[in-house]
What we know:
This protein is of the alpha+beta class. It has four helices and seven strands, in the order ααββααβββββ. The N and C termini lie far apart (about 60 Å).
Amino acid sequence: MGDWWDGLTGDLQVFYLIGAIAGVFLILQLLLLGFGVGSDLDIDLDDEGAGTGFLSLRSLTAFFFAFGWTGVLMKEADSSTPVSVIVAIAVGLAVFFAVAYMWRKFSQMEESGSVDYQSAVGTVGTVYLPIPANRSMPGKVEILIQGRLRVIDAYTSSDNDLPAQTRVTVVSVVDQSTVLVKPL
Length: 184
């Protein structure tokens, strides 16, 4: 691989590095999202307060991934460096805004507030994601609310962590989308 790398021009090496590093970050983000660690670092540029600003780690990763690999493709097609950079920026920006728009729309699909979590008090459910003890952090429980099976955030006042698959009962509502549970 050393001979192949050394045979590349400097600008092509830069495009490969940017694309490869962004690809690693993209794969890492997808793996974390698959394990339920889907939070994103973002900067809101508006006053909506939706927590889904266009400038986010996801959209920046998408930009650099598209920029790097578009630059590689352009250089491999014998385009000049200025043309390669311009096209790579254009494609990167298109992907950046597409990803940002997509995640903004996904975030707007969250709970609408029409579910009355108060009706869940007294129901029995199952821990879906472990719930740390003493209300230190929320976990998730799977419960039946208004005839629909839902996975929602939950705290426990128990002195012990509640592992996945633990049967629990809903004690009270913490806020409009979070409940307090105790083990059965």
